[in-house]
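Rotation project, supervised by the postdoc (A.L.). Task for the rotation student: set up a whole-complex structure prediction and record inputs and outputs verbatim in this book. Inputs entered:
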Amino acid sequence: MAFNSFEEDVTMAEDRYQKGIDKIQELTSSDDDNPTGFMDIGEAFKDIAPDLSKYVVEFAFADIYSRPGIDNKQKVLTTITALVAQGKPQIGMHIKTGLSVGLTPEEIVGCVVHLIPYVGFPSVLNALTVAKEVFAEQGVTVDTSDVE
Amino acid sequence: MAFNSFEEDVTMAEDRYQKGIDKIQELTSSDDDNPTGFMDIGEAFKDIAPDLSKYVVEFAFADIYSRPGIDNKQKVLTTITALVAQGKPQIGMHIKTGLSVGLTPEEIVGCVVHLIPYVGFPSVLNALTVAKEVFAEQGVTVDTSDVE
Amino acid sequence: MAFNSFEEDVTMAEDRYQKGIDKIQELTSSDDDNPTGFMDIGEAFKDIAPDLSKYVVEFAFADIYSRPGIDNKQKVLTTITALVAQGKPQIGMHIKTGLSVGLTPEEIVGCVVHLIPYVGFPSVLNALTVAKEVFAEQGVTVDTSDVE
Amino acid sequence: MAFNSFEEDVTMAEDRYQKGIDKIQELTSSDDDNPTGFMDIGEAFKDIAPDLSKYVVEFAFADIYSRPGIDNKQKVLTTITALVAQGKPQIGMHIKTGLSVGLTPEEIVGCVVHLIPYVGFPSVLNALTVAKEVFAEQGVTVDTSDVE
Amino acid sequence: MAFNSFEEDVTMAEDRYQKGIDKIQELTSSDDDNPTGFMDIGEAFKDIAPDLSKYVVEFAFADIYSRPGIDNKQKVLTTITALVAQGKPQIGMHIKTGLSVGLTPEEIVGCVVHLIPYVGFPSVLNALTVAKEVFAEQGVTVDTSDVE
Amino acid sequence: MAFNSFEEDVTMAEDRYQKGIDKIQELTSSDDDNPTGFMDIGEAFKDIAPDLSKYVVEFAFADIYSRPGIDNKQKVLTTITALVAQGKPQIGMHIKTGLSVGLTPEEIVGCVVHLIPYVGFPSVLNALTVAKEVFAEQGVTVDTSDVE
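Outputs recorded:
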């Protein structure tokens, strides 16, 4: 790790929370009136763990989601996959993020179906149920001509 | 699902095992002398479950890996993610496949590091240990200038 | 794996989907008007992944459930166990299948309770809640005289 | 293991179920009219697995919860952690037990938030949702002045 | 649960450890010189947790393995399945137990292969590697004529 | 979350990495010549993911391990529990940390044994094998007089 100069450190400290918020806006296509868009950053917990949102925004979004290496579409595809493999209820929110960053519905379904040999049918069927709900809510249809 | 004509069915029956082998060759850049390359299709089990390789080749590779929706690079990224989330020893073989289909080492590391907020540090550290071994074995170096 | 003659291949191709449906009928005691009975083969996803049902029927039921080695009762007991160990919501449907293939309610409960030392109490209590609901729905009572 | 004398054995046999009930009363601060308090010992399953409550009371509470080594507060903290790591719905009941044995709400939240690096954000967010519900139901507030 | 008379309680207290040992002998076909046979009851931990073996013998074997509902073959099949679903290293010891209680190698392999649609290929391939080792060690061969 | 003044931000930026290192020294009783002691902060990955150690030190140790709510002994007990529940190989390093922060070997064993009803025997036996190795390496003996 390259250590930062004093000035860079100041900038980093000021910018880290904002950098995370900016990343969330980029991922959710949200506007400035509702900067975190549909992303759950744990604001519901401000009365029991007010620091939680800071970890979500600064660590998950400013550090990890802003890291180079893979692009936003790959990041969300990877996130969806991890959640399907673990059966977590956050799948829906991240499918929505996937659509927002430009993953096609065919890519999202393709990713989930691809997981059958690795996680088994039940996890995939459960995830597709969620995907179907998100697609209906977002008015998105899937072009299935290639797989019929 | 569109049902196939009789002739298509014949072709499909003949071709399904071959289609899976072709897909494996495409994924592993293997030649015809060793068509399954470094991919473990379960041939070690021919004396206890001789039909297993058929399921691997025909279902995993002819059906699932050949399905449209996501491309080979996305398929392998998704596979690696599922294996990291579950802590399976097959991670190494699929990192090798990733390099073979054109994922850069930066993308593979980027994918694994991206999983920290979803699967925690221990799973990621374990996966990076395997990635490092595969990279060393394959003579691959990672350009880290962007993340230093 | 023994390779098939051309004629066998034709037959296999024609029969694979039907073979899976036949197996489901056998497992669910369903009639020809509703051949898949209460088994969820993923038909709800025909607008987002129309090929999914084909994988369920042809791979899960024609290939795997039709494989010799263990009988139907053992297959369903094994399936229920895997779902209890993973905490999947499909447990109920497979308990229903268990009753249909002749597992007694005592065997189903015996299997779930047997898992306590391997998966812990919470997973077992959650699965018994589902079992109780299925038994009530099916009008099945459990003979508990031996374990009181 | 030290083997018991005949008299000790008799006492142990008589007392094991009672010892478990006593432990549950201690953990839940329940009175004699409702000795198991809010603890689910599986009584709902007396028509399908009447021996289950015995295993819960005698093994989980008389053997394990009564074992020396760690105190009640540590036992419940450990239990909550295991349930968060596995995503089990029993988290709520054991958070209630935690409050009953004297864990502060700050300790319970502190434990759950501490798990982020080991189990990831989604499991922690799901557990905090349950914690928040239990705290509201129990009229408990969290002092967050230290973490704001 | 039916409460026991005083005399039954005495008998139960005296017999519970012995009952567990007897069950282990039955499961492992062990003789009196080595009553626990190849079963790991945690005796390696007598210097750090000397009570552990008691819980294994009395709870796992006297309570759970001795419970009516399913027979020994079903119990071991269920145990193997739970361990495959979780990827635990104890799979080998329980495959050995399976052979000892009369499960055929075809049934053991049949059970593991049956799990592919529920736990995915990697877990099944890992389990078959262990099965193959146990079969080799035990001089057992698998009749594969039906699945070739 | 209270937002920081400009000066606090500067301090925080300068101190965050150091704060994490200080916490690791506190946890591992390490001296300044080897400030991270036996804690694996991912330094082995500096050629493939040089930023990883920064996330470990700054997020896991400066943010999370330094958070008030639970004390160091509770934090390590909670960490060990999460790793036992998931079967991760990092258990040993954190048992070592537990001894370093003052958890007695009886507390560590007590915690692991307490998990039997929640994670099952196999995970607990595997963790005790690691605990035994660490205790031997550290010359630590367990007082078992209370549980014999």
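Student's summary: Chain B touches chain E at residues 40, 42, 44-45, 47-52, 55-56, 60, 83, 86-90 (CB under 8 Å).
Supervisor addendum: DSSP finds seven helices and no strands in chain B.
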